[in-house]
Amino acid sequence: MNATYKVKVNKDFEYTIDQEEVSKTDIIQTSDSKFHLLDKNKSYHSEIIQSDFNNKKYSIKVNSNTYEVDIADSLDMMIAEMGFSVGASKQVNSIKSPMPGLIIDIQVAVGQTVEEEDYLLVLEAMKMENIITSPRAGTIKSIEVAKGDAVDKGKLLIEFE
């Protein structure tokens, strides 16, 4: 399988690079953080100045210019395509229905304080009961559905204060 990467440079320029292109690159590591690169008969000296491996963010100096580089692999791209992002669940102020279905139980009330992963409600969809849990600790501001309501995908269910 040929891995694909989305590379964003200085938050302005975006490139898609696959594993085959990476393997064809003429690059030599000259020290722990320095590299020498040949591309189209041009020589480039590069150095990784700062790296955040877990978040795939790097500060790279090429010749005398410094660039901020973000790298997304196929999993990162799939997560973004599905509308999710790493760490975003902690900022959630509302919960919307992930699919059409029927509200069969509501386990919280307005004003109630909940913790992350507490059960909020049960949504029946495709003959399966889906328990919707709290993405963060907080207080329930409003409940926009009632037991027995049919909901469409994207319908607002619960808001947090």
TrEMBL record:
- Matching CDD domains: biotinyl_domain (cd06850)
Q: Which Pfam families match?
A: Biotin_lipoyl
Tell me which species this is from.
Aquimarina litoralis
All copies of the Lipoyl-binding domain together span: 83-161
Q: Which InterPro entries match?
A: Biotin_Carboxyl_Carrier/Decarb, Biotin_lipoyl, Single_hybrid_motif
Its keywords, alphabetically, are: Biotin
* Name of the protein described by the UniProt record: Lipoyl-binding domain-containing protein
